[in-house]
Design goal:
Blueprint lengths: L9 E10 L7 E4 L5 E2 L3 H8 L4 E11 L3 H12 L1 H7 L20 H4 L22 H8 L2
Antiparallel strand pairs: 1-2, 1-3, 1-4
Helix pairs in contact: 1-3, 2-3
Length: 142
């Protein structure tokens, strides 16, 4: 269920297991070393089935982009059709936090206008080798 984000521009990153295409013999584990941005969970459920994305647990809070920017990023990973099905329209209403796990921000952060005031560190990604950028994007999809 999509809801408006309150507070700073942040999102959960989560660990999860995905039973690819419903095949019990093919389970992809996304652990703390390679977590999933929470907005991708509804897309994974759309692609693989609601019950085939499970053990979703929050493992961090990171800065996020604007909804339209995140939607475009997810479209490069999962395809425009799947992303548009889950997050329709030009101004998508994206779930940034796992339901029931919404963070409580102190007033000085919750009322901040700019994401630069958010005292959290983004997940460090391994740099892709030169010329391997496209391959790295393709490998992100589950």
């Amino acid at each position: 269920m999509a809801r408006e984000s309150k507070g700073p521009m942040a999102q959960h990153i989560v660990t999860c297991r995905v039973q690819v295409g419903g095949d019990p013999g093919t389970i992809v584990v996304r652990g703390k070393s390679r977590p999933v941005p929470y907005p991708e969970i509804p897309i994974l459920r759309h692609l693989h089935g609601d019950t085939n994305v499970f053990d979703v647990e929050v493992c961090g809070l990171v800065p996020r982009s604007a909804g339209s920017v995140e939607k475009n990023r997810m479209a490069t990973v999962y395809g425009r059709e799947a992303v548009e099905h889950v997050y329709p329209g030009g101004s998508p209403n994206i779930d940034w936090y796992l339901e029931g796990e919404e963070p409580e921000f102190p007033p000085e952060i919750a009322n901040a206008k700019a994401s630069s005031s958010l005292p959290i560190t983004p997940l460090q990604e391994k740099p892709a080798a030169k010329g391997k950028r496209e391959a790295a994007h393709q490998s992100e999809a589950i």
